[in-house]
Structure formats: structure tokens, C-alpha cells
Amino acid sequence: MIILVFLASLLGSMAIGLPVAFALMFTGIVLMSFMGIFNPQILAQNMIEGANTFTLLAIPFFLLAGELMNQGGLSKRIINFAISFVGHLRGGLGIVAIVAAIIMASLSGSAAADSAALAAILIPMMRDAGYNVPRSAGLIAAGGIIAPVIPPSIAFIIFGVAANVSITQLFLAGITPGIIMGLGLLVVWQFIARRDKVATLPRQDWPARLKATADAGWALLMPVIILGGIRFGVFTPTEAAVVAAAYALFVGLFIYRELKIADLYFVLLRAAKTTSVVMFLVASALVSAWLITSANIPGEVGNLIRPLIDNPTLLLFAIIALVLVVGTALDLAPTILILSPVLMPIIRQAGIDPVYFGVLFVMTTCIGLITPPVGIVLNVVSGVARVPMGKVIGGVLPFLLAHIAVLVLLILFPELVLTPLRWLRG
Amino acid sequence: MKKGIDYLTRGIEVILVLLLASMAVMVFANVVMRYGFNSGLAISEEMSRFFFVWLTFIGAVVTFKENGHLGVETLVRMFGRRGRMICMALTNALIIMCAVILFWGTWLQQPINASVIAPVSRMPMIYVFGVTYFAAVGIGIIAAVRLFRVLTNTVSEAELRQFAGEYDDDSQLVGRSE
Amino acid sequence: AQYQDRTFRVSNGINEDHPVGDGVRAMQACLDERTGGALKLNAFWGNALGGDLQATQSLRSGTLEMVITSSSPLVGIVPALGVFDLPFLFSNEQEADAILDGEFGDYIAGLLPEFGLVNLAYWENGFRNLTNSRGPVEKWEDFEGLKVRVMQNNIFLDTFANMGANATPMAFGEVFSALETRAIDAQENPFVTIDTSQFYEVQDYLSVTNHAYTPFMVLFSKPIWDTLSEDEQTAMSDCAVVGRDAQRAAGRALASESLARVREAGMQINEISPEEQARMVEKAQVVYERHAEEIGVEVVERMQAALAELRAQ
Ligand code: NA
Ligand code: NA
Questions:
Q1: Total domain count for chain A?
Q2: Domain range for residue A259?
């Protein structure tokens, strides 16, 4: 019964246009009234505690690093680097887009920002070279959502805090699945490129490649600093984020020199505003999470799917299908925040590795970013590429299926995630 | 009036920038001190966390003013002016309710938070927790103004479009999502 | 006696397999017998309802009934509880039991209603001991330069800094990987935590320093407590004591099991000789002086008087 109250108040209020953060507060108010424990202090206290967490400070710092890098002319250099090495292969600019998407994913955690940057540079080039533009836009959208799977990743930070799972482990675990997602796209794109006979770029010689590498080198060093720092215990994820921001500031100001001191104010302001949007959501989610837990909703859901608990694979298929459905309508952070308190007790009880589950969970919510009815990455790419939304949805479809195939593969063979994770842990 | 609000918004934005910049400096300084001097400041962990809380709730008001909080507008977008206005009225009424309860809760919690001292800075926690007063009042006023304009039928087309999540500028979209 | 059907939510930071789980089960069994199943405990584990400090604040505002928490996170609310953070306070479990279940324990419990809290009983967290990756710690000089993770707590920070260690506050969730990657050398916790957190996989040396004993407190919300009948209050208090005895017994059994397990896992374990223990206690006295003011001079003096009386017997 209480599950229905929870779902009705959350979905109903969101349907009339109430922003998710307020819908979560409203749901909390409804839940506590329904349970007969209405007390305004539950709202006030949980909201502050939601933000009062040192680990979450990684969010503003990674956002800041991303903003600084974008402002500093980094995307252009990464794309040139990719062009110099793979532009001449069959699939041409499509392969460039996939490779650049993977590299940019290791620098930033934002699917929307990465897709926007890739689309802004690559779509005009692809259009001029006679590529099918909706298909190209779809590929870029599908590549852009690798960003939250490969670290750094705000999605992993939020999941780590919401589910009490090591962020360091999540970061290390995300690398391989992110690359596999890229490989999946590559396979599908090869079929399309063969059929469409897409143009390729001239092969570049080694001096040109070396120059492109040197140009992009400062950017390419950033994932080494972040991941190496975390892997070898030099930094905690929060510290790694602030070091990344300092590094991006240094490169933007003194090496690439595309960042001006005057830009700094707006870079900080944008990062601050995005931080407050994300964190206000985290804070509101804690209100309903507290009441969900208090009302034993995870237990009720657990009872519903108890028959599956002895079969982890089947259980995972059921849960991931649920997440995929929720993700079609919701953005990353709300999906993670709403579902974690319900799902994690069940995952732990079924003996599924929480780090492995976190990877699948985040991947699935990422896929939601490129599905209708609400897919923010689709909106971004459609806007930047000037392609109508309906056509982008058609264009993204084969790549969407590729991502889902990868997801199924990872559920059937957990070792694809766990074995490389063991190597990386050392 | 409009000018006054603009100045106020700019002023708050300066505060947000200062908060984020100081957080970054404090945490970065601690990393440097730990490796350079084998020491660290316990206060910087605590203060950067408190700044983060302030940033979150002060920023939430500014982003609310800009319709920056994520929502699902699929259904609303299908409606015409009248339907959109009904949704906008209901939504803002619910937001006012949330803001009132948030204010009320902070008020009831005030004595409890005033009597707790932060471990390192020894600052009474009400200075941290009290920021929800600002958030509740700020968001409440903005929502009340919007509700008033809907009810008096003075809301503009542009505002209704924004409410339905229709943006003119792609960068606004990117900024909304993490 | 009259009992209404009531369910009390109990917030816990630790997981259900901790001896506190045994205590809660024993307390529930006692309540079932006394109240015919009217009073029920609904326990939440692993910080599901928030951290210990947040949960305690919920008690004060009457939005949550119970929390079982170590005393350390609460010193910001009740400064007197800092007395339990003082280093080398109790020399053994019998001493701790006698003081906590005796007059001094009642005195501390008597301070709490003013803060909106009722203490039902003192349960056991166990003596805290040091593990590290550098070498056995046998005398206080061995702390020199050791990077130790401690809780975010001034007295703990000062205790280790005073020994010459480099005390680093860190969230518990980050400790394992920080030890693994040698970002820190050492951490300190009771045997059971060292075992269940598998610190033996990343630490070679365990030194039985017994440097701190912070009790668990079984706290009830004062605003809600006042709505209970006298019979219900008595049942809760009495059963918390029944739970306490079960919890301490389970904890002590588990502690020796844990010690055996970490030894088997290859940890090198050393006891501190009585002479060196005395030197450590001596060295730590300055921490008492430095923090007496913030804890409350009367509280520290009463504690020392109670200990002196007990040791004279
Ligand atoms: Na990323
Ligand atoms: Na979607």
C-alpha cells in the first residue's frame, strides 16, 4: 500500500511539471502524513545532512575541472588527436567520434557536456563529408553517455554515497565497461559505414601524429593524474577532483592560454550553479529516502521479488529492466537517488557485489539519457546538431540496442567487470 | 524593482563564486600540506563542508529563479496555454507548501542546532543548518510571485514556455544536467 | 501492568552481525515476555536512517525513538561525554562495567534529559587497539611519525599527536583503501571491527594498546519517552539492561574469536608490558589536563574519584 502512495505522489507531482527535487520533498511530506508521523523537522534535518558530506565535495570540483577544460580549448585538441590516428580507417569520422568520446569520458563526468562538445565540432565535419546527419548525431549521443561510466563520474560519486560503496572501487570498475560500450558502438558503426560507404580522411604521417599527440598531451595527462592518484592512494576521490581542477586551471591559463582570468568568474559561477542543482536534488532525495527506509519499503519490494533472490542473474535482469524503465523518464541523479535505498538491501541480501551492481546501475541510467520520452543527451545533440528530435531518436536506435546488448553481456558474464577490476586493484 | 532584484541576484552570485573558490583553495591546500609538510588542517575539512552546504542552498534559490531544477515536462508540453497555466499554478502551490514546511522545520530545529558545537571550528551548528531559512524564504517568494501572476493571468508566453522546459538556448540545457 | 502496542525504530551505525544485534534480540525477547509483545523494536542497521549524530538529533526533535551509538560522536551535543574519549581511562572490562553500571554512569545519564535524551543502558564497544604496517608498537615512542587514522574527535586527535603520531581524521569508509595503498600506516579500533573490516589483509601488526574504551549508549528520545506510561518506561529500562548483559557477553566472546582469527590470518600481535603501559598512561596525562575544561572539570574529577575508590577496594 505504502509503495503505491509513494509512486502516486512522486509520479503525479512530476507529471504536472513539479521539478524532481520538489517532487521528492512533496513525496516525503505525503509519506510522513500517511504514516502518521508528520513532523516538519524531518524535512529540515535530512535536507541539510544530505549536503553535509565531505565525499560529495568531489562533485563541484569535477564540475569545475570540466568547465575549465572546456573553456581551455581541450575538446578540439582531443578530436584532432583522434583524427590523426584513426581518421583514415573505414568509418572515418564515426570512429573519430567514438575514440574522442572515450578520451573525453576520462576527463569529464558529464554526458551532456561531452556530447555537446563532440557534436559542435564533429557534426559540421560529418555533414560536409556527406554522412547521414541524424545517424551521426545518434552516434555522438550514444558516445557521449560513456562519460559517466568511465571515471571521473558524478554518477558514481552519488551512487557511492547513496549506497555506501567505495567510490575508488567504482571508479576503477567503470573503466573496462566504458571501453566495452565504445567497442559495441564501433561494431555497429562498422556495419553502417560499410553500407553507407562513408568517406574517410587522408592518412596522416607520424610527424603530424606526434604533433597532434603533443598538442593533446596536457589533456591526456589528466586521466593519468586522476586515476593514478586514486589507484595508488595518493588522493581520495575528493582530493583527486580538486587536483584535477587545479591542473585544468594551470593548463588552460599557461599552456593552452585559451582561458583568461576574466573567464574564471563565469566558469566558477556555472560550476557553482550546476552544483546547487545536483546537490539540492541529493538533499531532497534524502528526505524521501529516510521515509522510504523508515516505512520498510525496501522490505516490501524485497518480498515481491523474493522468489528471484536465489537466482542472482534473473534478479539482476529484473532489476536492470526496472531501472531502464525508470531511466527512460528520469535523469541520472534522480534515478540513482530514488532507487538506491530501495534496491541496495536486496542486492546485498542476494550476495551480488555492490561495486559490480553499481557499474550496471549507472550504465543503465546512462542509457536512459538517450531514450524518449525524456533524454537530455538527445535534446542536447538535437539542439547543437540542428536535427529534429524525432530524427535523432531514429538515428540513435541501433547504438541504443548496442548498449543494451553490452548490458546483457555484462549481466551474463560478471567476470567482464570483475576480472579487470581485480587486475586494477593489483 | 526589477533593477533591485538584478543587483540582489548578482550579489548572491558573487557569494556563490566566493564559496566555491574558497572550498577549492581549502581542500587543495590540505593536499599540498599533507604531501609537502606532512601535516593538515582539520578545520579545512569542516569548513569546506559547511561552505558546500551554504553553496547548495543559496544556489538553489538562484537556480530556481532561472527554472534550472530538473523536471519532467513531457506531459505539460502537450498542453495549451490554459493547461499549462493550471499546471503552473498547482506546481507553485506545492512548492510554496514545501518551502513553508522547510521553514517551519528549521524553526522547530533551531534550539537543537543552536546547542550543538562543530567539533573543530566550535561553531554552533545553527549557522550551518540555518541556511534553509534563506532557501525556504527565497524559493517561497519566487513561487508566490509566479502563482500570483498565473492567478491574475499576467504570466508571459516566455515564462510559460520556460515552465514547460522549452529553451531557446542549448547551453541552458547542458547547464541543467550534471 | 498496562502496555500499548508501540513500535520503536532503533538506528544503528554498525551492521546486524555485530554483538549489538545480539543485544537488540535479547532486549526484544525480554520485552516480549514482559509486555506480551506490545512493545516492539524495529532495528535499522548500517546508518540506514543516517549517521549516529544525525539520528541522535532526530531523537532530540522527537522524529525517531532510539539510537544505539558510541558516545564519541555526541560530544558536540553533550560535552561531558568527552570523558569517555580520554585515553587509558579504564584498565580492564571489569573496571568499565563497575563505573558505567554504577554511580558515575547514573550521574552521566542524569545529565542527558536536559539535552532531550534518555540513556537506557551502557553497552560495550570494546577496548580500542592499534594496527599498523610498520612494526610492533611496544612503547609510546613507537608512535613517533606513524600516520594514524582517527575519528573526527579532538581528544583522539590530541592523544595521538601527543604521542608523536601524525593523526589524520578520515571517514571510516575510506580507511581500508588508504591502508592498502599506504596513504596511512595505522588505524585504531576494537578487535571485532579489525576482524570484520578485514584490516588484517592490509596490516601486519596489531598492538594491544587498550588505549580507549568508548561505551555504546542505548538512547531514547526524551519527547517520546514522556508519552510512555511508567510501566512501559520501566519495561524499556529493565530490558535494556537484559540486552546489555547479552550484548557484553556476545561481544567478549566474539572479541576473543576475532583475535584468534586475525592471528590466524597472519597478523603479528603484541601485548604491551605493564611497565610500558604505565609509561603510556603517564605520557597521556597531559591530554586529561588539556581537555578537562571542555569536558567539564567536575565530570573529570568525579570520574577520577570513582576510579580511585574502585581501585582502592
Ligand atoms: Na567520466
Ligand atoms: Na530517457
A1: 1
A2: 39-425
